[in-house]
Structure formats: C-alpha cells, structure tokens
Amino acid sequence: MTDGARTVQIYGPTRTFEEPSLTGAKVESTVWVRLAPQVWRAGAEQEQWFVDWLAAARQDRSPDVLATAFEYTRDAPPKKDNQGRQYSGDASFGPPDPADPDGRQERSDFYDYLQVPWTFPDGKSEMPEPQRKLALDCSGFLRMVYGHRLGYPLRGTNTPGEGLPRRAYAMAEFGPGVQLVPYTGQRARGIERLLPGDLVFFNAQPVPNRQIDHSGIYLGLDDGGHHRFISSRSQTDGPTMGDLSGVPIIDGTGYWPDRWLTARRI
User: Fold this and answer.
1) In this predicted model, what pLDDT tens digit does every residue of 251-266 receive, in sequence order?
2) Of the candidates 252, 19, 248, 265, which has an alpha carbon nearest to the alpha carbon of residue 138?
3) Which residue from 49, 158, 224, 249 could staple onto 170, CB 3.0 to 4.6 Å apart?
4) 110 with 140: CB under 8 angstroms?
5) pLDDT value at position 102?
C-alpha cells in the first residue's frame, strides 16, 4: 500500500505472461494488481471499507491490471459485451500514415477502440473516429486498462485534477497518484521502487531528449532477470511486451533503458 495511491499489489496464484511471436521472454508473476475503491492513507487498514474490500480482493480471480493489459496484445481473442460491441482483443496503434516517421498515427483513445461517444467529468466530449476503431496509442492503452476496464477516473484534458489525463506527459507531470522516481530530464534512477502495475514514462525519439512522449505498464522481472514493461507502440502496431523496435526493459543499456525518465503509482 502506498500513501496517495489506489494501486494495490496482492499475492495470488502464479501466472505467466508471454508473447512467443514477438519475444522469447516470459514474466511469471504471483502479484495481482488491483485498484482500491479509495486512495490509501495510513490508518485505512482499520476502516471498514478497506477491510471488506481486501477480503473480497484476495479471493478475486477476475482479470487484474496485468491480465487486462494482455487482452489487447497481438492475436488476443476478441471479447464482446451484451450489445455485441467488442471491448477487448488485438488492438492496433492507429491508422497507417505514410507521413509519420513510425508509419502510424497517434491519438487513438479508448473511445476510438470502442467506437462510442464519450463525455468526461471535466466537461470534455469526444467522438470516435471510424478509422481508429480497435486502436489504442500508448496513453490510450493505459486509459483503456486502468480507466474504462477497471474504473479509474479519466480526464478528457491534459490538466491537473481528479483522474488520469489524456497524454503521457500529463500523466507523468500531474498525476494522479505518487511519483516514484523524480523527473530530472535525465535517465531515471530508482528501479528498485517499482512494483507491477506502475506506470513508466519515456522519451521515445530516435535522439533522446527531455520530453515525455511514451508510457507503459511495468510488469516486473522477466525470466532473464530484466525489468520488463508493456506498452502500445507504433512500430509493433499495438500493445506488446515484445522485442521488436527495442527490448522493452528499463535496466541495463539499450533503446528503452536509455529513454526511461520517470514512474508513477496511481
């Protein structure tokens, strides 16, 4: 439990997360990542809301943060609601764009994937774009998992306030939750503070700079002993923990370790 955050890591049965078509790495985890109904603070362990919630959460085997994230990876089977609308399954990053250096457009949020209009509590209203159906960019992927699927409040803008903002830089800067690693504009330090489910932020440009423009979900240690994350990337056309376009780890050296800038627990 972390003061100021709702994310809770609960030990349960071991699960293995893998994408054999994109990487030989596997992540075995006994951690199930849940969202408490309220922000944690010292002393809450004595309050009835937490006692009741924790008892139920320990027995809960419905998809948690990690399992939900993998519902959008390559070849993930589609799931549909009672109205026949697909709410999970293999997601692309965005529509093709020959003018984009990475080949695909950004700006695909969860409501684009779902193809439903959405009005946010901060007053912003959005209409889905048909060409973005079943697409999620990096921050849209986080908003789908934590927000639409698991109930974390979402903002329609990139301003401070209750809920997860739209863009990666705003999530990192404004929160919500707790910043685990100070943002200095240089490669982040403090990897030992991370737990599965934490949000990690990067500069994804070919020539690194101080700007945060990419986000992912920390998974924990893979079977090679590396700190691996999952994110939606243009080069892989959607969410993945695979090695195409840079091994998605934050330790050692390489494309993503050199571009890791900060982390947050929401």
Assistant:
1) 999 999 999 999 999 9
2) 248
3) 158
4) yes
5) 65
Longest dimension (CA), the chain: 57
Distance CA 105, CA 98 (A): 9
CA distance 153 to 231: 20
In this prediction, residue 25 carries a pLDDT of: 98
Please answer whether residues 108 and 137 qualify as being in contact, where contact means their C-beta atoms are separated by less than 8 angstroms.
yes
- What is the rounded CA–CA span in Å between residue 257 and residue 250? 4
DSSP H helical segments within the chain, as ranges?
48-59, 65-69, 110-114, 138-142, 168-174
According to the model, what pLDDT value does residue 157 have?
94
Handedness of CA 127, 131, 134, 139 (dihedral sign): negative
Q: Give whole-number Cα distances, 167 to 65, 67, 190, 205, in Å.
A: 19, 23, 23, 16
Compute the CA torsion angle 165, 170, 173, 175 (nearest 10 deg).
10
**Span 38-80, pLDDT tens digits:** 999 999 999 999 999 999 999 999 999 999 999 999 999 999 9
The contacts of residue 182 (CB under 8 Å, 6+ apart) are: 188, 190, 262
- Cis status, amide bond into 176, omega within 30 of 0: yes
Please check whether residue 16 is in contact with residue 241, taking contact to mean a CB–CB distance below 8 angstroms.
Answer: no
